[in-house]
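Q: What residues go here?
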């Protein structure tokens, strides 16, 4: 098992963002974490990626109870924070992160070409559009060929071309994936399984087929 959450809770002061969240993610499984804005999706993936700690509950990633550096090296994360250095070029950003994973220049070129950034690789990131920064963030997250990729609403800011390129890449992605979205069509297209969260609770865990009818039923 790649990820296991048991009875996870998270409070921020008096506000309880997550209430008894439990689900697992198996090897090479694609899971959509679906729910409206404010439902707890981002809080959940921030816990899984080790950015914050749960208030209560049990978390296991690759069989470990702690998200340490050895665990982080096996995952890639795309979040609302791009983790990019705006005073460096796109290529320099990729070189820096590649050095952390002992990745060579061929991998950098491959990803920048796939995401349509190769021609702009020597431009400063501060001059990139929002969508280009998002694409570079996705390329950064895939550098180390992660065994687990966490994508927190990755299509935010992407134009049609960027969205198409992303979905083409993900269709060939063979590792475990958690894809958060509030878009039913994205969940159905990318993932075979969906966990639906409402007000910090899991209200559905099952197939991504016929999500519209499932959504209407459990969200009433």
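A:
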């Amino acid at each position: 098992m790649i990820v296991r959450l048991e009875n996870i809770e998270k409070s921020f002061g008096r506000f309880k963002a997550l209430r008894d969240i439990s689900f697992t993610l198996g090897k090479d499984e694609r899971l959509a974490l679906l729910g409206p804005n404010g439902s707890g999706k981002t809080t959940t993936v921030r816990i899984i990626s080790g950015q914050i700690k749960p208030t209560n509950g049990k978390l296991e990633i690759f069989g470990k109870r702690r998200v340490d550096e050895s665990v982080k090296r096996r995952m890639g994360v795309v979040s609302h924070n791009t983790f990019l250095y705006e005073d460096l070029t796109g290529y320099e950003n990729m070189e820096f992160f590649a050095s952390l994973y002992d990745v060579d220049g061929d991998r950098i070129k491959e990803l920048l070409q796939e995401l349509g950034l190769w021609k702009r690789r020597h431009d400063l990131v501060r001059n990139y559009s929002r969508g280009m920064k998002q694409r570079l963030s996705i390329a950064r997250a895939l550098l180390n060929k992660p065994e687990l990729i966490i994508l927190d609403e990755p299509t935010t800011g992407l134009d049609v071309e960027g969205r198409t390129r992303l979905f083409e890449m993900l269709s060939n992605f063979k590792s475990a994936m958690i894809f958060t979205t509030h878009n039913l069509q994205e969940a159905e297209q990318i993932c075979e399984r969906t966990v639906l969260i409402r007000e910090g609770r899991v209200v559905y865990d099952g197939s991504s087929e016929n999500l519209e009818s499932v959504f209407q039923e459990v969200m009433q």
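A: Context that may help when evaluating the design: The chain has a mean pLDDT of 92. The longest strand covers residues 15-25.
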